[in-house]
Amino acid sequence: MSQRKAAGDAGRATIRDVAERAGVSVASVSRVLSGNYPVSEELRRRVMKVVGDLDYVTNAHARSLAGGGTPTVAILINNITGAAFAHVAKGVEGAATLRGWLSLVGTTGDDPERELALVNLMRQQGVTAVVLLGGAYDYDEYQLRMARFARSLDAAGSHLVLVGRPPLEGDVPATTVDYDNEGGAYAMASHLLSAGHRRVLVLPGHAELTTAQGRLKGARRAFEAYGVPFDPDMVRHGPYDYEHGYEAVQDSLRDGLDFTAVLAGTDVVAAGAMQALRAAGLRVPEDVSIVGYDDIPLASQLTPQLTTVHVPYEEMGRVALRAVADRREGGGSRRKGGDGDHLVLGTHVVVRNSVQPPARRA
Amino acid sequence: MSQRKAAGDAGRATIRDVAERAGVSVASVSRVLSGNYPVSEELRRRVMKVVGDLDYVTNAHARSLAGGGTPTVAILINNITGAAFAHVAKGVEGAATLRGWLSLVGTTGDDPERELALVNLMRQQGVTAVVLLGGAYDYDEYQLRMARFARSLDAAGSHLVLVGRPPLEGDVPATTVDYDNEGGAYAMASHLLSAGHRRVLVLPGHAELTTAQGRLKGARRAFEAYGVPFDPDMVRHGPYDYEHGYEAVQDSLRDGLDFTAVLAGTDVVAAGAMQALRAAGLRVPEDVSIVGYDDIPLASQLTPQLTTVHVPYEEMGRVALRAVADRREGGGSRRKGGDGDHLVLGTHVVVRNSVQPPARRA
DNA sequence: GAAACCATGGGATACGGTTTCCGCAATCGG
DNA sequence: CCGATTGCGGAAACCGTATCCCATGGTTTC
């Protein structure tokens, strides 16, 4: 009778309990379970029987400590409820699960301090990779901080993956999975311009957000290409949410701004804008056209269905995970800062029913 | 010079490295870092200096193994991108983070096999609690399987929490956090009935889904209370998605079904229904009224804004985490099957603009 | 002034597996 | 028929940390 284990047997069964009860050694049990060592059929049967009886599962912490252990990817995200990045998370998680990897998740709530704390927490967990989702705020300090993260993780045998934000400058051990943000905005704006719109209300997002900067830049380039002057007064910055879309349009109308189309930085912003236009008695798209960005499910659920830019969010997630998995199997970091560290996926305009040529003005 | 650690120093620094470099014992380093033992200022300074230099973080696996360790909650969810349960996940994760807990996340994709595999995986991880989100399919086997899960987890010192599904029968060590599903449906249907609607198309969801069953039951009760006959032909089952809403309405119209309102099982289904009505040239709410369920952000972003039932999803998540945290601090399972194992949160109707009294018929 | 006590720091052990190194038995070849 | 090879199971050494127990030096108390 084992001494350190009373009859009551609180807590979980250990590999020793299994070994004892099966009348074999601890090593044999381990071998049967990991299956990376030849064992006789008889032994396997005996062990598995007891494992079933005791409802035994191996202790993941012990296993990791001893060297084995399930690869784990940490997903750090601003807000789970944001549709776009929820899809990325789904892509990462799905691809991880497919390979038997585990997914940890943490939300930063746009707080740089929490982001830092979480990265450290994940470092403690010894995760295989940390995936950081979402556009970044372009503070001066950002580059330095991220570079530090990347190096810390790399030193610990882990790896940093940036999804949906621009790559880090210099020789930093990090992978970036990005999409053609500016190109999508260019195409979207071109779509409006070619439909004949000349006065467009632009709601790119927060001025400091890298995503918003790219979208604004793409739009501006399209205007230049069409030889249409770009009026800075027609740009309203603000958060990527419904309320901002609503208020920006409301304010613009109140200010007597003259526009025939709205170029929203996000589908959600577009939804808010649409609602505000309706509230003002304007029809979409007869009076004012609207386009969004992201192509989240909402876009096709609005009435009229929203013309928008499709971003392959879920695939970005899958690609991100594949990148770290490949690197892992490929034998660690081959060349830092080389190609293969920055993957860019394409975007394209999805034409639905929210754009029409501008109405003749009175 | 340590022998088992070459100069290259791949991998992460251990507590031993820190101790050695600071010229103190391993125990001292541990104490400085956990802070649960008095140490001199001098010692703390010395250790922290080296910790900073080496960028050391403790190995979470080793810590857990040794008894310490961060409490971890596992969130199992069908689909992260579903708005309703994403909010629950947010609530759980937020409350967890607030207490310094960690959140693991796994998606089941509606696959009972994966659910099983994930619960076992989480058991390996030694999680403090497993939170299972979302309505369950009411198979015969369900009760037994869940009861087994609950007991397994309980035996391993963990705990099962069911969110948004009915509690387990019998003496099972599990906690349920639920909302007044049937009551919400009753109130919602009553709202339609009191507006004068008599012929209502009901889209409750999948017939086997517990959530759908409750919503249907609540609606039926309301009809009875109003003395309005409930026509089974007006009920169309199907998944909780946009397409189902669209097709159900489309088919109903094609079949010549006569209805003045749609009682959708979900806001997303309502969105699909709304689109289909529009496509058929019907106006909402002038010709047909629509109501939803869940009150996800989409509900207020549609045009017209959707009257729906508010479910406190995020709070359910917080409550779920609080329940396990309390139980943990309260000294383990006090009484199994007693009260406090089933928490029910209230729902209420949110009146917006998608309901009008039925138009006079020709 | 001696004894009892406190505040700290160090050494050793436990946590639950994996894995390497060995030994034993059975089988095979000559 | 005997020695060598092969196959399989066991004992023990870690993995990195927390903690128990003990040693030490200084302080308090009688």
Short overview:
The structure is a homodimer of 362-residue chains. Chain A has helices at 15-22, 26-34, 41-54, 60-65, 83-98, 112-124, 140-155, 181-194, 210-225, 242-254, 267-279, 297-301, 313-329; strands spanning 72-77, 102-107, 129-133, 160-163, 174-179, 200-205, 235-237, 261-264, 289-291, 308-310, 342-345, 348-350. By secondary structure, the first copy, chain A, is α/β, with parallel strands linked by helices.
Total helices of chain A: the number is: 13
Q: How would you write the strand order of the largest sheet of chain A?
A: 2-1-3-4-5-11
Largest interface: A-B, 58 and 58 residues
Distance between the termini of chain A: 96 Å
Assembly classification: homodimer
Which structural category fits the helices and strands of chain A?
alpha/beta
| pLDDT < 50 runs, ≥5 residues of chain A | 1-8
Report strand % of chain A. Answer: 5-15%
The biggest beta sheet of chain A is recorded as:
6 strands, parallel
Instruction: Give, in order, the helices and strands of chain A.
Output: HHHHEHEHEHEEHEHEHEHEHEHEE
Radius of gyration of chain A: 27 Å
Number of strands of chain A: 12
User: Which outline of chain A best applies?
Assistant: elongated
- Share of helix among residues of chain A? 40-55%
Explain the overall architecture.
The structure is a homodimer of 362-residue chains. Chain A has 362 residues and is an alpha/beta fold. Chain A has helices at residues 15-22, 26-34, 41-54, 60-65, 83-98, 112-124, 140-155, 181-194, 210-225, 242-254, 267-279, 297-301, 313-329, and strands at 72-77, 102-107, 129-133, 160-163, 174-179, 200-205, 235-237, 261-264, 289-291, 308-310, 342-345, 348-350. Chain A is elongated, with a radius of gyration of 27 Å. Chains A and B meet through helix 4, helix 5, strand 2, helix 6 and helix 11 of A and helix 4, helix 5, strand 2, helix 6 and helix 11 of B. Chain B binds a DNA duplex (30 and 30 nucleotides) through residues 14-16, 24-31, 33-34, 36-40, 43, 58-59, 61-68.
